[in-house]
Amino acid sequence: MTFIALALSALLAVGGSAQTGVLDIYFIDTEGGKATFFKSPSGETLMIDTGFAGLDTPNPDKEPGRDAARIADVAKIAGVKQIDTLLVSHFHGDHVGGVARLTDVLPVRVFVDHGPAVQDVEPLRQKVGDYSEYWAAAFAKGQHRVVAPGDTIPAKDLAITVVQALGKSIERPGEPNPHCQGVQERQGGNPEDTASVGVVVQYGKFRYANFGDLPWNMELQLLCPTNRVGTLDVYEAARHGNEPSPAVYAMAPRVAIYGNGARKGGGPAPLKAFRASPGLEDIWQRHKNIPGGA
Predict the structure, then answer these.
(1) Which helix (H) or strand (E) holds 146?
(2) Closest-CA residue to 48 (of 15, 96, 93)
(3) pTM, rounded to two decimals
(4) pLDDT at 293 over 70
(5) Do residues 89 and 95 make contact, with C-beta atoms less than 8 angstroms apart?
(6) Are 86 and 110 in contact (CB under 8 A)?
(7) What is the rounded average pLDDT of the residues 88-93?
């Protein structure tokens, strides 16, 4: 099976009254990591996360890692030769791991993150309070920007708003969320998941959201007692399609997408929870999930 066949290229043709043309979104199977590629009608590109480093690579010193190669294949399909903006939601290896190899095959103009890592993760040589050598070497090849809730990320044709970062949520009014009633907090997530950058990407009336690995309690912070995100067409489920809090029902996505693996995310409990979401038309999984039977 080729890299292209393994890369689930789901093209969503969407538009609105103020735009013409098509926004293409490719959801790339990194088998339990995340990598989502956008090409706007003007040809500008946005990448959110890059999957793992070096998996299934026969010659790691000479070839891009598995996930970087899949991203490069998708860029070829999309007819682009660079990534204009690369947003890393947080510094875990299944989200940022592919960066070093990716920048060897595709130049990146602007790197975006939440600021220095807040958790020591050995595979990336991260130190609390500082950037890892791994990531710093990558963003030295282009411009680097740190974002906070309420910031916007420039991109032609797209409105990209940061709604969550470093454990803080955007401060703006929202509609009361009835799905918050009686929902209890759970044991907190790890520091780096909690720091995840969450964004809403809008093209015309089409709205997409990706919150990285935002934990259950951070979902409640963002969406309770009022929903500060609004409604969505596509929600790329946090935590690889693990069980969402009922608070996400207020976003009423038409499609929920899991960045899952064979045994990571997407099991029976989240499938049942997402199917209860009002207005849901479908659930898409990037990889066959064995416990979920889907």
Answers:
(1) strand 143-146
(2) 96
(3) 0.90
(4) yes
(5) yes
(6) yes
(7) 93
Calpha distance 180→188 (Å, rounded): 17
Type of residue found at 113: D
DSSP code for 205: T
Higher pLDDT pick, 125 / 192:
192
In the block, tokens 């958790």 appear at: 119
pLDDT for the residue numbered 294:
59
State yes or no: pLDDT of 212 exceeds 50.
yes
Nearest partner of 50 among 75, 63, 68, judged by Cα: 68
Query: Among 110, 101, 113, 119, which residue's Cα sits nearest to residue 151?
Result: 113
Instruction: Classify each residue of 238-264 as buried b or exposed e, where b means 16 or more C-beta atoms within 10 Å of its C-beta.
Output: bbbbbbbbbbbbbbbbbbbbbbbbeeb
Residue 121, amino acid: V
Question: 15 pLDDT band (50/70/90 cuts)?
Answer: very low
| Residue, of 1 and 260, whose pLDDT is higher | 260
Distance from C-alpha of 193 to C-alpha of 215, rounded to nearest angstrom: 7
Task: Output the furthest CA–CA distance in the chain (Å, rounded).
Answer: 54
Enumerate domains of the chain plus CATH numbers.
3-285 (3.60.15.10)
Kindly state the DSSP code that residue 263 receives in the 8-state scheme: S
**126 phi/psi in degrees, rounded to 5:** -85, 150
Looking at per-residue confidence, does 108 or 54 come out higher? Answer: 108
Tell me the torsion sign for CA atoms 171, 174, 176, 177: negative
Could you tell me the two tokens for 281? 């038309």
Q: What is the pLDDT of residues 31-41, one digit of tens each?
A: 999 999 999 99
